[in-house]
Specification:
By secondary structure, this protein is an all-alpha fold. It contains three helices and no strands. The longest helix is centred in the last third of the chain and has 19 residues.
Length: 78
Amino acid sequence: MNIVFKSGDYVSVPMTESLFWNRVGNLRNAMLTAESFEFRLLYFHKLQELMRFVPWSFHGLKKLLKLIIQRLWKIAQK
């Protein structure tokens, strides 16, 4: 497997709302289904980091999602 690093004139695709929520869902599923505690923790922190970029128009939703993530994390630990 080769690792490719693009530099120079690389322009990333802008994150649309649907891409954002798709990524949130993928990280949530990865966090809940990971067998290793270290990977659950990694995905949890990635999800927390991603949630910092929720648009300000979703500020109330951002607080709600943080609560949901915290509760899911507690359930996943059981």
